[in-house]
Amino acid sequence: MEILSKISSSKSSYKILKMASKALIIKVSSGVLTFLMFLVVARVLTAEQFGLFGVGFSLALFSSVVGSLGLGTLIMRLWPEYMVGGEQKIAAQAMVWAIKKTLFVSLIPAGLIFVIFMIFDITELKNHYDFKFGFSIAILTISMSISEFFSAALRAQGKLTLALVPKDILWRLFVILAFGSTYLIGIPLDASLVLLGSAMILILATVFQILLSDLKDILKGSKNATGEYRAEWLRLTKPIWLGAIVFSLTIHADMLLVSFFLDAETIAAYFAALKIASVLALPILAINQLSGPMISKYYHAGNISTLQQNLRLYLVFCTVIVLPILFIIIFYGRFLLALFNPIFVDAYFVLVALSVGYLFHCLSGPAAVLLQMTGRSTLALKTSFSTQIIALLVFPLAATTLGSFGIALVRMFEMALRNSLQSLHGYRIFGINTSIVSFFFNKSFEK
User: Is the separation of the CB atoms in 258 and 270 below 8 Å?
Assistant: First the structure.
């Protein structure tokens, strides 16, 4: 209670809560729209096609992380760091370099997917994974890579609304309107068309975002950075990028693996459960939108006391919101699954297991972000890589013995272990505890 009273009396608490609330409102709106988006897609498609859509969407999300080169996270560190140090020109040059690099590198995984599915189209796999399906995933991959970078770049500049609204709100809203209309009209669609349509709408939302920002002016006015800076940035981004790949694999590996072990309808039910459970990630995602630049700013300024105070305030904010959502899922999970398709209610325990995993994610706070923003990206990578390797080794056994519930259990334990270890590393190295444990063992704030 003493900690809470000091949080509430802090002069910066109002500003922090205001920003966190703003981010959460956007993320909750995004979560609601995401739920409605996948609900509409589930209604438009057959259960089998919805399962294929889930596989394609997860593959595109993972591939977009591969194609991003981790530059979105890097720019959230570099921009505040250079601006605090009075090096505005270098900050602009870093932004230009990162934008160009993202545009180029995103083409690589997209091209690989394109080639792989061209091969699938001449094999017995073409009944599901044909050329059209691969082309749609490739386009969605490119659009997601570019969109995510611009969102990160604008967050680094403190333009939270412009960073989040086009992708988190407008994209989902127009996908709902577009495919909801086809459902009402009765136009038949398959997974490939829905994936491609989603990609095109995201591209339009990103163009809208760029036109309203000053990033286009930075591109025009800034000179290229020297080779020394580019080499340094590339060195810094490698562990961030690999860490992001491992983290994304953690999120999407189960969806990609179930396509090998389970039938399409079970995949669809798992995908529905995954999307419902991911609502629990909204508060921590909102916190992560703010914590990256905030951690970089206060850490490099040497203001550790304010940094720890803000992290604890974020935890209170996150926990108060997550717990009621968890209880709603526990009591009404079957009803929520039935909204997608009545046959999905059998995935209730899958839903509960995934929800508990996301609860651990929230209660651990932005542990990985702390390590990345303080120059410990390699440590974050090693931790994620270790827990993910364990999970990947266990996944096949869990899938063959317990089905989708076994995969959900593995994912739950992996999330809990990874986030706990990363939070422990942050405390061991910096004395900064990002997790809920800080309320019980850390010293009180300085006045």
Answer: yes
